[in-house]
């Protein structure tokens, strides 16, 4: 019902405020915008032009990583993608492994996919929670953040830390799966499936939510492709693309899962698709737990460099310690790119190494940065109250977009 | 699979939403923890505060090199009898004696608990603990001296009930006393 | 459709490494970048993933990483469309130190926003970090950096900085 | 002094006591504090968490809203430089005042009559209740902030679109009871059916309008915090903010009293006609306030279930569905009166 009233091109010259337009600065510290300023030109209640002004949480991750050893980029990269750390860690390590041409053993591949899928569920629940409070429903916010806890407990049990796990290292993973993990994971998955039914009534089928999200922020298929949006927002507009299927990595080639896609690409589809993806992730975690191969959890090039104390530790406590190679890692000169499908979309890495102790060029693009065109192109013509809906439906996370 | 969207029917939607809200109003379930009285029992490999074993450490400063936020600094020490080290007198820092060595000290204000140092130590000299909720009042407390750093950190709420979260199927997250 | 000879039609200088899924095509002069981009778009590369620069002592390499959402067998490829550009020598040599733009002048490159709309935000970031002026970009403003970093091109290798004393030292 | 009759003085003191103690200020403050605490406790319970707890742990944090009130009264008063000073200071006070004045004409028992017995109490109370939103708009206008200005516009839109249905639903009840006075309305309910059965449509419209005017979810549009920081009260601090935030709850108390008088049969089980303060006012008053409290609890429970509507959706449904429902309720009551009598 809120079709496009204005054409973006002839509005470029609006920047003066008068009786006709109000310039509203939904500022860096505003309950509805996170750490970014959204300059909105309002004609009454209708949005005429939106100019997102990002960069308030720009933490120069690229600049820092170009002046540090290779292993030290893992904590930097994780703290940028905070609710979805494992995918950032995985993307960086895949690129470094391409430079070093190391292949992790199958058990490590499966453990990587396991942690990635658990993190996808926590990232989607984080997105649903934020979407809920932007629409005003504090119950969905509290439920979503509460339901993240059992999955974060699983991560804690497996990796020792709640969110910034630094679990994946070039060549494999750092800890093996403790015993008792499989049963615990099974109860958590069944708990989540039961909870998804409760979300149906309070969130997905709630008439007020449907009224607020159906036909709001419609992004047609061709626009989604030409604007280059990513992740669930892309699939909600009907584009059949998922990096796990089309550029497979870790254990995804031998996991069977579907990619849910929707037709009309409005906020309600973006809401539905996240619930579907949680179900797919639960299905994948079950497959991983069922056929987890035996064997080493770190590549041989690294295992042979462990000294006797470290080898004893590896045999007894299944804990991978770092040989000196980890600090003085000097990948041969070359360039590598890698893509990983994070919860919010795909992360892209491009690293150029000149055989030095530090990477020569460290470039990476996060999903939220590529979802920015939603503000400039999709939000125009809607009402002011639709801006938080669109912001919540694309699961935008300012620190991740600013890098 | 293309999800076909079910038509909107507001009436049953309202009734179901209110019923679900009422169901959770009446059912006795709780997700949050009464923190100081109950604390979670953490898994064995939880990455909390850690100290160094004075005798085992060989002063190779690998941990100082690998620490991403550069939180570890090496302190000059002298090896006393029985392997324990004594503070090195300031004056003769340059003198190269067989007894001179270095020990790591962690600045808790910078540490991010990634355990790179614990994993890189060739002699596995770090002793991890599961204490994670320490609070420091004064400014110099989170930059301990070597002697303070050696004392293992102790739990702030020792007499709290230890609980483990159980993903109870019927009643939500819930907690039960730790085994 | 064999990707190798498709790219060869566009430009001879190509680097392809199947095992590492690394594809690179180099365009020598900036005049030819526009129709190279057009033919890539007709080939099926329909959106830009990232635009960045790589700073060398004598030249700046501008890289557009393009990929495809619609064409089936291009979905697995991230093609690096690179354009090396010579750095104009700085106007006043005698300037001693500091990040003055006159000492490190920006390079100018044609903008590809008209072909790939998804490149608009990426190009703004490459502009403020590397000093690459994209001609024809409708809205080339600073995106993330605050005022005191204007025209200092912080991601270039010759960016001088003092190491700030960390507060919890 | 001596020639003024003693009964006049007693009568004056008696009325002052009603105003201040029972249906007046003290009950309002107690109920507002309890209902704010109850709202946060219900929302917490549905969201599987504790809710306010630490202020007075043994009684479940019941004194939390009192602690908030104290906190507000000690905060520093910040008045923006370009704000319209007089309106900025007076508006919240007037808003709270007019919300409480409306209670004069809402009787909680047959004996209740403040200042002068009148037979038009329904009309007086409605007139006073409708004035409160006007001061809400001045609050938004006076604080010279774009967000509160938009909040004031929204309050204006919603105020107009939900006034007509509100009055029509009360008119349809007046038609059935054929009186302008709550006491006789309740009398006729006592010896016949309670209002909600007589005209359920009017009850539904009244509920919807109650949710709208007091800004409960899903109509929390003027203080929509994810769009306009705090809506009307963005620039306010200290006691002004406390009073401003408490006014919707006082309005909620008024509306629930009117709802229980007109639709739930007032002091329905106790069929008294005794004219003395204890039986004629205190006992029936207790029944009415308990019914009003239940209605408030139901409205407050909606916060845990619903997000909020958009402004244009609320205004559009105001002028279409709710208006249609209220017209139908008037027709229903006319048909009832014609055939049943």
CATH superfamily of the largest domain in chain A: Cytochrome-c3 Hydrogenase, chain B
Count of all domains of chain A: 2
- Which of globular, elongated, flat, extended, rod-shaped describes the shape of chain A? globular
User: What coarse outline of chain C follows from CA principal-axis ratios?
Assistant: elongated
Mean pLDDT of chain A: 89
Strands side by side in the biggest sheet of chain A = 1-2-3
Order of helices and strands of chain C: HEEHEEEEHE
Determine the strand fraction of chain C and express it as a percent band: 25-35%
Uncertain segments of chain A = 1-10
> The biggest beta sheet of chain C, please?
5 strands, mixed
The end-to-end span of chain C amounts to 59 Å
**Oligomeric composition of the shown chains:** heterotetramer
CATH structural architecture of chain C:
2-Layer Sandwich
Q: Count of DSSP helices of chain A?
A: 17
**Discrete helix count of chain C:** 3
Q: Which structural class fits the helix and strand makeup of chain A?
A: mainly alpha
Question: Which sequence of SSEs, written as H and E, runs from N to C of chain A?
Answer: EEEHHHHHEEHHHHHHHHEEEHHHH
Number of strands of chain A: 8
When the domains of chain C are counted, the total is 1
Helix residue percentage of chain A? 40-55%
Please give a quick description of this structure:
The complex is a heterotetramer of chains A (403), B (179), C (169) and D (341). With 179 residues, chain B is an alpha+beta fold.
Give a structural overview.
The complex is a heterotetramer of chains A (403), B (179), C (169) and D (341). Chain A has 17 helices and 8 strands. Chain A is mainly α. Chain A folds into 2 domains: 9-53, no CATH class; 61-402, Cytochrome-c3 Hydrogenase, chain B (Orthogonal Bundle). In chain A, the strands form 3 sheets. Chain A has a 3-stranded antiparallel beta sheet. Chain A starts with 21 loop residues before the first strand and ends with a helix. Residues 1-10 of chain A have low confidence and may be disordered. By secondary structure, chain B is α+β, with helices and mostly antiparallel strands. In chain B, strands 1-7-8 form a 3-stranded mixed beta sheet, with no helix packed on it. The radius of gyration of chain B is 26 Å and the shape is elongated. Chain C has a single domain (3-149), classed as Beta Polymerase, domain 2. In chain C, 18% of the residues lie in helices and 25% in strands. Chain C is built from 3 helices and 7 strands; from the N terminus they run H-E-E-H-E-E-E-E-H-E. Chain C has helices at 3-10, 33-43, 120-130; strands at residues 14-17, 22-26, 47-55, 59-67, 79-86, 107-110, 132-135. In chain C, the strands form 2 sheets. Chain C has a 5-stranded mixed beta sheet. The longest helix of chain C has 11 residues, at 33-43. The model of chain C has no long low-confidence stretch (mean pLDDT 85). Chain D has 341 residues and is mainly α. Chain D has 12 helices and no strands. Chain D has helices at residues 6-20, 25-46, 64-74, 85-101, 121-142, 146-177, 182-190, 195-198, 200-213, 238-262, 277-301, 311-340. The N and C termini of chain D lie far apart (54 Å). The radius of gyration of chain D is 21 Å and the shape is globular. Chains A and B meet through helix 2, helix 5, helix 6, helix 11 and helix 13 of A and helix 1, helix 2 and helix 3 of B.
């Amino acid at each position: 019902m809120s079709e496009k009233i204005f054409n973006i091109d002839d509005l470029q010259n609006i920047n003066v405020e008068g009786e006709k337009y109000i310039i509203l600065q939904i500022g860096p510290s505003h309950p509805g915008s996170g750490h970014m300023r959204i300059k909105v030109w309002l004609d009454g209640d209708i949005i005429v032009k939106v100019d997102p002004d990002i960069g308030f949480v720009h933490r120069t991750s690229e600049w820092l990583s170009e002046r540090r050893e290779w292993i030290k980029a893992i904590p930097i990269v994780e703290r940028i993608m905070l609710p979805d750390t494992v995918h950032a860690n995985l993307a960086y390590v895949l690129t470094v492994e391409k430079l070093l041409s190391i292949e992790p053993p199958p058990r490590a591949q499966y453990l990587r996919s396991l942690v990635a899928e658990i993190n996808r569920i926590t990232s989607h629940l984080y997105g649903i929670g934020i979407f809920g409070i932007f629409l005003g429903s504090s119950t969905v916010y509290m439920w979503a953040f509460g339901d993240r806890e059992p999955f974060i407990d699983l991560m804690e049990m497996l990796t020792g830390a709640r969110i910034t796990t630094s679990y994946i290292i070039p060549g494999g993973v750092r800890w093996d799966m403790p015993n008792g993990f499989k049963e615990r994971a099974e109860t958590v998955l069944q708990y989540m499936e039961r909870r998804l039914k409760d979300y149906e009534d309070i969130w997905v089928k709630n008439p007020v939510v449907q009224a607020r999200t159906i036909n709001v922020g419609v992004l047609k298929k061709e626009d989604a492709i030409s604007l280059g949006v990513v992740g669930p927002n892309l699939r909600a507009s009907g584009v059949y693309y998922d990096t796990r299927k089309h550029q497979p990595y870790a254990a995804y080639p031998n996991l069977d899962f579907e990619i849910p896609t929707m037709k009309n690409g409005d906020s309600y589809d973006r809401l539905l698709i996240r619930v579907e993806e949680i179900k797919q992730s639960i299905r994948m975690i079950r497959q991983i737990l069922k056929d987890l191969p035996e064997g080493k959890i770190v590549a041989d090039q690294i295992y042979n460099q462990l000294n006797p104390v470290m080898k004893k530790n590896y045999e007894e406590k299944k804990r991978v310690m770092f040989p000196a190679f980890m600090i003085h890692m000097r990948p041969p000169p070359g360039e590598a790119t890698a893509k990983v499908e994070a919860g919010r979309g795909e992360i892209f890495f491009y690293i150029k190494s000149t055989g030095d102790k530090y990477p020569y060029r460290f470039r990476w693009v996060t999903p939220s940065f590529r979802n920015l065109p939603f503000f400039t192109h999709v939000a125009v013509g809607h009402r002011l109250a639709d801006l938080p809906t669109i912001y919540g439906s694309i699961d935008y996370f300012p620190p991740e977009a600013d890098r | 699979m293309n999800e076909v969207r079910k038509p909107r029917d507001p009436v049953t939607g309202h009734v179901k939403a209110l019923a679900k809200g009422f169901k959770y109003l009446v059912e006795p379930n709780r997700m949050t923890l009464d923190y100081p009285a109950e604390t979670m029992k953490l898994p064995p490999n939880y990455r909390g505060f850690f100290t160094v074993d004075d005798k085992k450490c060989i002063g190779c400063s690998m941990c100082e090199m690998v620490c991403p936020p550069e939180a570890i600094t090496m302190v000059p020490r002298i090896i006393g009898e029985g392997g324990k080290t004594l503070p090195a007198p300031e004056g003769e820092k340059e003198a190269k004696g067989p007894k001179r060595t270095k020990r790591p000290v962690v600045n808790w204000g910078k540490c991010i608990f990634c355990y790179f140092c614990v994993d890189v130590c060739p002699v596995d000299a770090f002793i991890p603990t599961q204490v994670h909720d320490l609070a420091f009042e004064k400014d110099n407390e989170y930059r301990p001296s070597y002697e303070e750093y050696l004392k293992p950190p102790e739990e702030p709420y020792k007499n709290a009930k230890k609980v483990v979260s159980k993903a109870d199927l019927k009643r939500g997250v819930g907690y039960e006393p730790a085994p | 459709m064999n990707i190798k000879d498709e790219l060869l039609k566009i430009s001879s200088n190509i680097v392809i490494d199947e095992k590492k899924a690394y594809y690179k095509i180099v365009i020598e002069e900036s005049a030819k970048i526009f129709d190279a981009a057009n033919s890539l778009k007709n080939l099926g590369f329909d959106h830009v993933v990232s635009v960045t620069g790589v700073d060398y002592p004598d030249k700046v390499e501008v890289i557009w990483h393009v990929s495809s959402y619609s064409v089936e067998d291009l979905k697995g490829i991230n093609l690096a469309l690179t354009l090396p550009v010579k750095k104009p020598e700085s106007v006043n040599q005698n300037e001693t130190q500091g990040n003055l733009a006159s000492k490190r002048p920006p390079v100018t490159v044609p903008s590809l926003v008209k072909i790939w709309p998804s490149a608009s935000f990426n190009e703004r970031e490459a502009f403020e970090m590397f000093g690459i002026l994209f001609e024809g970009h409708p809205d080339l403003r600073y995106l993330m950096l605050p005022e005191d970093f204007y025209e200092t091109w912080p991601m270039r290798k010759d960016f001088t900085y003092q190491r700030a004393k960390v507060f919890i030292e | 002094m001596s020639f003024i009759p003693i009964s006049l003085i007693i009568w004056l003191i008696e009325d002052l006591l009603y105003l201040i103690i029972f249906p007046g200020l003290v009950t309002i403050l107690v109920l507002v504090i309890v209902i704010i605490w109850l709202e946060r406790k219900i929302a917490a319970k549905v969201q599987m968490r504790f809710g306010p707890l630490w202020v007075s742990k043994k009684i479940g944090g019941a004194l939390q809203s009192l602690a908030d009130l104290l906190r507000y009264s000690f905060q520093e008063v910040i008045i923006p430089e370009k704000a319209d000073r007089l309106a900025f200071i007076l508006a919240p006070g007037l808003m709270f005042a007019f919300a409480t004045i409306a209670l004069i004409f809402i009787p909680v028992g047959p004996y209740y009559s403040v200042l002068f017995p009148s037979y038009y109490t329904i009309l007086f109370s409605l007139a006073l209740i409708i004035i409160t939103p006007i001061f809400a708009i001045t609050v938004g206008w006076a604080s010279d902030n774009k967000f509160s200005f938009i909040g004031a516009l929204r309050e204006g839109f919603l105020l107009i679109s939900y006034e007509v249905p509100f009055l029509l639903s009360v008119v349809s009840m007046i038609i059935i009871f054929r009186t302008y006075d709550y006491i006789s309305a309740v009398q006729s309910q006592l010896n016949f059916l309670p209002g909600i059965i007589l005209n359920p449509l009017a009850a539904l419209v009244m509920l919807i309008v109650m949710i709208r005017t007091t800004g409960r979810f899903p109509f929390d549009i003027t203080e929509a915090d994810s769009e306009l920081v705090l809506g009307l009260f963005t620039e306010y601090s200290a006691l002004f903010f406390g009073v401003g935030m408490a006014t919707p709850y006082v309005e909620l108390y008024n509306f629930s009293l009117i709802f229980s008088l007109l639709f739930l049969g007032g002091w329905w089980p106790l069929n008294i006609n005794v004219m003395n303060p204890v039986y004629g006012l205190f006992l029936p008053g207790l029944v009415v306030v308990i019914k009003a409290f239940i209605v408030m609890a139901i409205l407050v429970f909606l916060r845990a279930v619903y997000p909020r509507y958009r402004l244009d959706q609320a205004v559009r449904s105001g002028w279409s569905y709710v208006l249609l429902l209220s017209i139908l309720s008037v027709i229903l009551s006319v048909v009832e009166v014609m055939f049943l009598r």
